[in-house]
């Protein structure tokens, strides 16, 4: 009886060890990719291109693509929204300034850029894997789905942009602002 438990435990141990090694290695490369946003997004663009080529090649899986589009739209809204919505609640010191005389507070996203990238990349990978199973290839008239998604995108972005204008926040920064001192007054003192 004791030998049976040992064999079952020894069969699980290599799998658990492999899973831990894989998890550690994956986390290592994920951590190394953090300071390289351009490379990360180029990789995601490559994964998206492979997915699009797969869908184009098999001429199907439009429901999967529609679901992927809705999921990405949901992620985009989280990426463009502030962590604390000024309409719903005002926290001490973490809310966006609403007047010009308010103190500057940095824009904190509800969904950080790294999580946004990681979620989109995972979504494209899962959608790509779904294209290998015919159960997900539901026959639909794809132009209707595309039109509906475009209408949904336009209405959602319109609402988000109006929210940005109302509360005066821009979710993108082009870099650190540089302030210059007063320019010295130049005298146009030519020799007359």
TrEMBL record:
Keyword Transmembrane helix listed: yes
InterPro entries on file: Rer1 (IPR004932)
PANTHER family, per the entry: PROTEIN RER1
Membrane spanning residue stretches: 63-81, 116-134, 140-157
Organism: Prunus avium
Primary localization class, coarse: membrane
Protein known as: Protein RER1
Family of this protein: Belongs to the RER1 family.
Subcellular location: Membrane
Pfam families: Rer1
Keywords for this protein: Membrane, Transmembrane, Transmembrane helix
Function: Involved in the retrieval of endoplasmic reticulum membrane proteins from the early Golgi compartment.
Lipid bilayer topology: Multi-pass membrane protein
GO biological process: one example: retrograde vesicle-mediated transport, Golgi to endoplasmic reticulum
GO cellular component annotations of the record: endoplasmic reticulum; Golgi membrane
């Amino acid at each position: 009886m004791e030998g049976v438990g040992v064999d079952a435990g020894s069969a699980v141990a290599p799998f658990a060890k492999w899973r831990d090694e894989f998890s550690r290695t994956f986390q290592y490369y994920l951590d190394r990719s953090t300071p390289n946003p351009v490379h990360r997004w180029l990789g995601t663009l490559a994964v998206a291109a492979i997915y699009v080529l797969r869908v184009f090649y098999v001429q199907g899986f439009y429901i999967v693509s529609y679901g992927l589009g809705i999921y990405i739209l949901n992620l985009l809204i989280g990426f463009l929204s502030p962590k604390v919505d000024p309409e719903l609640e005002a926290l001490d010191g973490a809310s966006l300034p609403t007047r010009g005389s308010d103190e500057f507070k940095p824009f904190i996203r509800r969904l950080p850029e790294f999580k946004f990238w990681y979620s989109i990349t995972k979504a494209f990978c899962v959608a790509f894997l779904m294209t290998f199973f015919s159960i997900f290839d539901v026959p639909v008239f794809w132009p209707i789905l595309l039109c509906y998604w475009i209408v949904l995108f336009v209405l959602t972005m319109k609402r988000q942009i109006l929210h940005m204008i109302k509360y005066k926040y821009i979710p993108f920064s082009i870099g650190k602002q540089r302030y210059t001192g007063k320019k010295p007054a130049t005298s146009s003192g030519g020799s007359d």
